[in-house]
Amino acid sequence: MEAIPRQQQSAAPATFTAFARFALCGGGVGIAAGFAVAALASWIPWVLANALITVVSTLLATELHARFTFGTGGRATWRQHGQSAGSAAAAYVVTCVAMFALPHMVEAPGAVLEQAVYLSASALAGVARFVVLRLVVFARNRSVAAVTARPAHAVVAARDLVPADAAELCRAA
Hints:
- The chain has 8 helices and no strands.
- By secondary structure, it is an all-alpha fold.
């Protein structure tokens, strides 16, 4: 079995691999964001705390996704940050709706329930974000890398392409 060059491995990770990386990077940032929102909401209104943490966590997660999750290996472009911010805005709406609906469904929700609802809404929004990031935001980078990279099985030595004798060479011409 031939080894696949490192550049090719990072060019277009399989969906499962990309999702695992997305869950690790985005989930880690999301969990940290959940605690940060809870802490910050004790000083400022929850909606503002969620907005601030969403902006910071989106910038951080987009960089992580550009570098590790979707195989670009480099920093995210401004276009990617903008598109990622659009999907994060949708995630922000989902978390806000979930948190505003909670007191209407449970009379006095505790901190643990609030955290569970917030993280569940974030996870749901995260799956949708994965699809958008993979198919839209980082899709061009993958397709360009896939076109420029040669498949591992197509690597052929130059000596294999040259005919062994003059008769074969004339026939090839």
